[in-house]
């Protein structure tokens, strides 16, 4: 029989133990966890968001395995190096949280290889899992989805526990900022937390729209290839401001109104 005794989650403050730059990275990372939960993209304590520690190229922040997205805070995040060694973490009271093996394998692969990227997000939403299981993959059937016309794909090889899979993960991602993990879920990356979250939010909307349209059991209206190509180009970094730049401050203000404890 499971023990149902309630345990207390007490997290020691980390602000005085880290640099100002790391503290800001912790705030942004915790905010991203809260936002993923707010928009219905969390899978209880599963999945991960990681953020590179400023000034420490081989270290990143990731969630303690066992905490819910909605209760994540800046102090609760675990600092780990590329090789999986825990560098710093708070006292969690009645708990002794560590990191999840699969999360470490996926996220460390990208942080090790892609030094220009600061944030990696991976989700198991039902629309993402559904599209990841379709032979056709993501269709460029809406303006939002056309941003991902050339999205990356990674074939399913089982639960990602083997370091040998890391090279394939990085190679399949290539220079894209989004990848569908076949029969698994979604993954996005960004030079900032805001950029990675923007990609995830739009990719999730694309998957939801596709599943909704395909569920109507009627032919989809096609878009001519030249229009698809032109729309895709309009979404590329060389023709527009960085994604996330405008909305991230607004998203933080929204979190401040809802529950400002993410920044503790």
TrEMBL record:
Q: Where is the Class II aldolase/adducin N-terminal domain?
A: 27-211
Annotated coiled-coil positions are none
Q: Which InterPro entries match?
A: Aldolase-II_Adducin_sf (IPR051017), Aldolase_II/adducin_N (IPR001303), Aldolase_II/adducin_N_sf (IPR036409)
* Single Gene Ontology MF annotation: actin filament binding
Q: Which Pfam families match?
A: Aldolase_II
Alphabetical list of NCBIfam families matching this protein: PRK07044.1
Question: What protein does this entry describe?
Answer: Class II aldolase/adducin family protein
């Amino acid at each position: 029989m499971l023990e149902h005794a309630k345990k207390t989650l007490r997290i020691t403050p980390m602000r005085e133990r880290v640099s100002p730059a790391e503290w800001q990275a912790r705030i942004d990372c915790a905010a991203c966890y809260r936002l993923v939960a707010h928009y219905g993209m969390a899978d209880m304590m599963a999945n991960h968001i990681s953020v590179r520690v400023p000034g420490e190229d081989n270290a990143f922040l990731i969630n303690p395995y066992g905490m819910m997205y909605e209760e994540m805070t800046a102090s609760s995040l675990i600092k780990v190096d590329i090789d999986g060694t825990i560098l710093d973490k708070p006292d969690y009271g009645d708990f002794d949280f560590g990191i999840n093996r699969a999360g470490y394998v996926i996220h460390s692969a990208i942080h090790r290889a892609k030094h220009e990227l600061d944030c990696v997000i991976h989700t198991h939403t039902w629309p993402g899992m559904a599209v990841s299981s379709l032979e056709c993959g993501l269709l460029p059937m809406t303006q939002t989805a056309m941003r991902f016309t050339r999205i990356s794909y990674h074939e399913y090889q089982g639960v990602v526990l083997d370091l040998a899979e890391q090279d394939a993960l990085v190679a399949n991602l290539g220079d894209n900022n989004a990848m569908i993990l076949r029969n698994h879920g979604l993954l996005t990356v960004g030079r900032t937390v805001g950029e990675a979250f923007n990609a995830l939010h739009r990719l999730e909307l694309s998957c939801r729209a596709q599943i909704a349209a395909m569920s109507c059991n009627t032919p989809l209206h096609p878009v001519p290839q030249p229009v698809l190509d032109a729309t895709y180009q309009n979404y590329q970094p060389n023709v527009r401001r960085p994604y996330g730049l405008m909305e991230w401050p607004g998203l933080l203000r929204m979190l401040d109104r809802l529950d400002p404890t993410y920044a503790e």
